[in-house]
Amino acid sequence: MAGNSFGTIFKLTTFGESHGSAIGGILEGCPAGISIDFDAVQKELERRKPGQSAIVTQRKEPDEVKFLSGIFEGKTTGTPIGFIIENKDSKSKDYSHLKDLYRPSHADFTYEKKYGIRDYRGGGRASARETACRVVAGAIAKQLLPEIKINAFVSSVGDVFINKPYQELDFSLTESNPVRCQDLETAQKMESLIREIRKSGDTIGGTITCVAQNVPRGLGSPVFDKLHAQLGKAMLSINAVKGFEYGSGFCGAKMKGSEHNDLFNADGSTKTNLSGGIQGGISNGMDIYFRVAFKPVATLMQTQQTIDTKGNLIEFKGKGRHDPCVVPRAVPIVEAMTALVLADLYLHNHISQLFNNHL
Amino acid sequence: MAGNSFGTIFKLTTFGESHGSAIGGILEGCPAGISIDFDAVQKELERRKPGQSAIVTQRKEPDEVKFLSGIFEGKTTGTPIGFIIENKDSKSKDYSHLKDLYRPSHADFTYEKKYGIRDYRGGGRASARETACRVVAGAIAKQLLPEIKINAFVSSVGDVFINKPYQELDFSLTESNPVRCQDLETAQKMESLIREIRKSGDTIGGTITCVAQNVPRGLGSPVFDKLHAQLGKAMLSINAVKGFEYGSGFCGAKMKGSEHNDLFNADGSTKTNLSGGIQGGISNGMDIYFRVAFKPVATLMQTQQTIDTKGNLIEFKGKGRHDPCVVPRAVPIVEAMTALVLADLYLHNHISQLFNNHL
Amino acid sequence: MAGNSFGTIFKLTTFGESHGSAIGGILEGCPAGISIDFDAVQKELERRKPGQSAIVTQRKEPDEVKFLSGIFEGKTTGTPIGFIIENKDSKSKDYSHLKDLYRPSHADFTYEKKYGIRDYRGGGRASARETACRVVAGAIAKQLLPEIKINAFVSSVGDVFINKPYQELDFSLTESNPVRCQDLETAQKMESLIREIRKSGDTIGGTITCVAQNVPRGLGSPVFDKLHAQLGKAMLSINAVKGFEYGSGFCGAKMKGSEHNDLFNADGSTKTNLSGGIQGGISNGMDIYFRVAFKPVATLMQTQQTIDTKGNLIEFKGKGRHDPCVVPRAVPIVEAMTALVLADLYLHNHISQLFNNHL
Amino acid sequence: MAGNSFGTIFKLTTFGESHGSAIGGILEGCPAGISIDFDAVQKELERRKPGQSAIVTQRKEPDEVKFLSGIFEGKTTGTPIGFIIENKDSKSKDYSHLKDLYRPSHADFTYEKKYGIRDYRGGGRASARETACRVVAGAIAKQLLPEIKINAFVSSVGDVFINKPYQELDFSLTESNPVRCQDLETAQKMESLIREIRKSGDTIGGTITCVAQNVPRGLGSPVFDKLHAQLGKAMLSINAVKGFEYGSGFCGAKMKGSEHNDLFNADGSTKTNLSGGIQGGISNGMDIYFRVAFKPVATLMQTQQTIDTKGNLIEFKGKGRHDPCVVPRAVPIVEAMTALVLADLYLHNHISQLFNNHL
Asked: Torsion-angle region of residue B329: left (phi > 0), alpha (psi -120 to 50) or beta?
């Protein structure tokens, strides 16, 4: 209802503002008996955290997760997994200058219109810090689905993009560079562009492509909760996302049916995959792939005009340590949200037919 | 859970296959005391129904809605609004040739993998016929929100597109041509292209743009249920949709922050609207606009290779009366889903703050 | 949200007023591949319908269910099962005398306070006619769970009650008398009492006991959705119910722990069953049994004082054909709601652990 | 889904085992702008906590709540309220003797059957410690509804009961004695009985009655979510509860309609209140009152026979510090759950009609 939950069976509910004492969440519906690799969870958090490289924000947040329940002697118990991440670097004083103004293209104005009150410190609930909780839950989802391989990567920054199909990329190289682009030549160009943009006090947008491989056939559902509709919502719920397309995407809208149809092989696989691994809202066993557009970060290190809460036009310049481009740090978030969607649908499929597992 | 519902407070649940005796739905959460204009509901159904013009499928379905409950003496009573639309043209015999094969890029294969059983007559639950129920509910949602203006239109068919901003279009012209494109010159080119495509037994994709105007500030929520995430899911749940972008969309991913930020006017409106009327997941009172990509229809009047349910490669050619291009008929569906999202969020906003309406 | 749904995975949503053109529902989450015995469904409806014996209301409602979707060639397809029951005996003219008054201990007054509008014909949405939809869904739930035996019966009418434990009753005798009490001597006394009450234009309350046998271990959940909490809610949602107790119930509140604890046998069964088959909110494999209290029907064939909608005191006497005692007809409803709870929890248990049924 | 949430708009989700590092919860849907009285919250926790008097368990748990989010400068912000209560007295070593056995009438056996794994330390998730989170949320619910007065009290312990109507009790005396019974003579008898029972190493059941006054008309809904069905579920979800009745309750099942109907006064109030303030599932403005049965605590300080996890019969005697009777400490829990139900329904009612509060 209040929009703090994602999933139905495998369900994450989060809480927390960027400058409260902690953020955290409750992960429900994780089946009992799964061994949790805590290092793997923490490693995903490290991929998202600020300060990890020269091209991201230099804020220091240790982002250490504490699990409070639902895991006993290293295994899930079937009860809700509560966890928190303390906000250790929440220098509230940095934010007093934001109290009485609305930053352009931020959530300040809209939150105040909705709630009549706003935690102005660093974006409050609107801060992308909330996504750390998604990364924790996504890391557990990945452990529930060890066979499924989920790989996201930066496919463009500004006008610089990877000019080859994902099949030619080596996913083992994702962490080899700070941009998280496996096409190393393109990665260098992207990194140069980001450094240049940062120098000018500006920011830049980009896209992330994500590929989920080895997904079982039959995940998703026919009508409102089509697999791609759920993936789309998952991605559009990430801060700064402006668009989502899967398979042929917007290009598919220019094509003819005779070009676009994916013909079958005898084993039910398809010769092409413009469907993006999903037909009628349900996975067909082929690779699921999609692309997500991120706008440039709205906080600039440049002076901009804006208004205060009384409607006076004022000058405003961002302070603090912000990302010149969010896509490198958003890669693990995209993967986490993908894992959450697939874990939920995977569990759903235990009840779509009654297999031979009558009690 | 099972994916047949949309919305939380203002909530539609649908049922029905294309060739059962009826499709229908239950609309819950409509406040009591709303006067229903039944003609307006039926008119929306007419916009969606087959056979309405020369460029859409020539199937004849009267698509007449019968309301069974929840409305008394012309007004909503606060109880669930049950309704059905009978399937009068369901010639089941037409479909026996589909029983033992999987059509390319259809839901046949994936449904059977999920459920182990499939109503093979005309797509069953996967048929776009289900969207008639959404149009009914959307028409009621529009009546709940008389101040909000929702206008969708065909912005491209194949390579033919409207080359001007939506602000230059006259929305009163939407129904003036069978394509539902207000730029009349472009509309003619689109219509010609569709006729040509149909002649060749092929199909073509397209895009729809939708604009919601006069939306109150404060609709939406901060995290998983951002307004644009809900719109995105709504659109991606429509048959044949491959992508969604709002505001600057995928173009925004190429821009700098200094270009992309929407500066405020003193009254809280913004000088530009790359945000697409939504900031931090919540409406800011500016126009909400977004674009939806539709793939070409998968059923061709051409012979294609496919497989039967035993995995033998066979030849297959579509029969019956299908749309060469879905976007003209999808316009009212896009509008209906937009109305459903906004109606739900509008009701949510009665409880985000406690206004002066204490007990 | 709006309170028209029951269940989470196996989920029924109903609509309909007693005097609209039809009532109906959507049953979601029924796994694909279940063969439906339509006669069994209709037979359950016959048990609930008016006019079935001399001691119930003499209204004539054929109560014939039409399935509109979700079943193909006799089997469930995994898609939602839509159904309607037409209201053939809805003589609206009978009810005009109810338009401007509030009957004592009915829902007239409270509905109008909530909604500001009311379908005054026969109780509208408040009519027990809605429970026919529950009986349809419950009959399908029973078919999903063929091993589980659910038997409800009338355990008291007014002061007349069965003075023996349920273990001494022969459940095959339930339908042998119009009261639905297997203790035949007591049944006769109950029937006499009901006839006498009816003759005086009065009504009388009663209780129903329900026993669910052969329930698998492990159904239910630890905290808010304890098995008995869900059964309690299910029962309290039936019209006229005033109380619910399971196992030792209210008597248990007088006992000592040393008397009340159920000691184990070596196989995990228990020597006594004051727990009522549920421990910690989860089934333990023993019989689940509970008791439900029904108040006397509020519509009397006697003159009572009441008020009109303007607050004037007036005289009022019930018209039409009402039940002098609801419990005989409520037996199939209690069974249906029990089946809905157990079916939902049974499906839940496919995902509480990951068994060997990894995809 | 997983049963850790209560409510729909005003919604609490809890996590935590008795012997993890903390328990906690997320409260969603609390409107923005409510000033929180933290002392009032803590005071409710003190009423529930162990060690507060000589007749309850002597465990020492400080039960101090830490709010982590959703409240800024003393006011709710509309975002989720996350909170934790640390488990400071969790001496895990005390519980190793429970690892390999199933205690009679506990959740040990059923949890292990459901999940295949069990946190055996002090009951894990089945521990009544979880209810502390409900008390926190309930205390906030009470602050949302300052006009509504909710008073619960111990109405019986074993065979000792209050022999007068609640109207004759002075609710200001609830905290005047450790039993929480306002009839002081009866309270003394109850206290003596509990001391005696404790001395014998046994336990005893009891009942709690709860009265909610000044409840607005119109709360609740017609069908599955009747107000009393939601109250019943709320109560039955509390540990050790065996039964629920409201208004006339089980006594009503023995009455005639002519005795049971509540006749109206001209102002819409009723002369009697056997309805318990609820008609047709919706509040009518009269006092809501109900009674809840609690079984005796299953942990005895006596030797009992039980089985180990291999099915061997063994002797078992409870250790540690347990309540001889739960009802005194359950009084604030009953009130909290009542407040949660009413707060949720109160918010629901902002959208049942569209009042004059159009945006």
From this structure: alpha
Burial A214-228 (b: 16+ CB within 10 A, else e): ebbbbbbbbbbbbbb
Q: What does pTM read for this prediction? A: 0.97
The pLDDT assigned to C58 comes to: 81
> Does the distance separating the beta carbons of A224 and B5 come in below 8 Å?
yes
Backbone angles phi, psi at C82, to 5 degrees: -90, 140
Is residue C124 less than 8 Å (CB to CB) from chain B?
yes
Nearest by CB: A246 against B110, B203, B242: B242
pLDDT at C358: 36
Cβ pair D256:C232 closer than 8 A: no
Q: Which pair of structure tokens corresponds to residue D46?
A: 């003190």
D91 CB-near residues (< 8 Å, 6+ apart): none
Sort out which chain C residues have CB atoms less than 8 A from B116's CB and list them. Answer: 32-33
**D325–chain A nearest CA distance, Å:** 27
Pairing of strands D313-317, D282-283: unpaired
Question: Rounded mean pLDDT of B42-52?
Answer: 93
Question: Which two three-digit tokens encode residue D317?
Answer: 């005697």
Which of C20, C23, C79 has the CB atom closest to B125's CB atom?
Answer: C79
Closest CA to A104 of A281, A335, A308: A308
* Residue C357 pLDDT class (50, 70, 90 cuts): very low
- Residue C359: pLDDT band (50, 70, 90) is very low
Lowest mean pLDDT among A261-265, C108-112, C341-345, D186-190: C108-112
Computed over every residue of chain B, the mean pLDDT equals: 93
Whether the Cβ atoms of residue C138 and residue C164 lie closer than 8 Å to each other: no
> So what's the pLDDT on residue C245?
98
E-assigned strand segments in C158-310 = 160-161, 206-213, 241-246, 278-279, 282-283, 288-294, 303-308
In angstroms, the separation between the Cα of residue B133 and the nearest Cα of chain C is: 13
Tell me the nearest-neighbour CA distance from A107 into chain C, angstroms.
Answer: 28
> What mean pLDDT is predicted for residues D349-359?
61
A contact residues 288-317, partner B, Cβ 8 Å cutoff: 293-300, 302, 304-307, 311-313
* Contact by Cβ (8 Å): C122, C335: no
Looking at beta carbons, which residues of chain C come within 8 Å of B133?
A: none
Q: What is the pLDDT of residue A56?
A: 86
Cα–Cα distances in angstroms (integers) from residue B278 to residues B219, B259, B265, in the given order: 9, 17, 16
The residue of chain B nearest to residue A129, with distances taken between CA atoms, is B223
pLDDT tens-digit map of A283-293: 999 999 999 99
Ramachandran quadrant class, B158 (left: phi over 0; alpha: psi -120 to 50; beta: rest): left
Facing residue for C242 by CB, picked from D111, D204, D252: D252
Quote the distance between the C-alpha of residue D193 and its chain's center.
Answer: 23
For residue D90, pLDDT over 70 is answered with: no
In degrees rounded to 5, what are phi and psi of residue D304?
A: -125, 160
Is A328 in CB contact (< 8 Å) with chain D?
Answer: no
Measured between CA atoms, the residue of chain D closest to residue B214 is D359
